[in-house]
Amino acid sequence: MSKKKRNKVNPEDSRNIAEKDYEPENYFGNTQFDKGMAETHEQVSDDYKEGTIDRKLEER
User: Fold this and answer.
1) Are 34 and 24 in contact (CB under 8 A)?
2) Which long-range contacts does 10-18 make (Cβ < 8 Å, 24+ apart)?
3) Distance between CA 5 and CA 15 in Å, rounded?
4) What is the reported pTM?
5) How distant, in Å, are the alpha carbons of 16, 19, 58 from that of 13?
């Protein structure tokens, strides 16, 4: 029976990624991290602009 190789995560690499914040330049980046941050920012921005969690918009 063959065992799958597990990728070992370097704690220092994890810490470096965890300390990063969204930057507008992420939209133009080519790395998986940049693309993920840009996509997540877009989703959060869209939800924030949409209204409340029950999708009701505030009347002004």
Assistant:
1) no
2) none
3) 23
4) 0.57
5) 5, 10, 43
Query: Which amino acid does the sequence have at 5?
Result: K
Let me know the angle formed at the C-alpha of 31 by 29 and 33, rounded to the nearest 5 degrees. 100
The Cα–Cα gap between 32 and 24 comes to 15
Give per-residue pLDDT as tens, 1-58.
556 667 787 888 888 888 888 899 999 999 998 999 999 999 888 877 776 666 666 6
Length of the chain equals 60
Token pair belonging to 40 = 């997540």
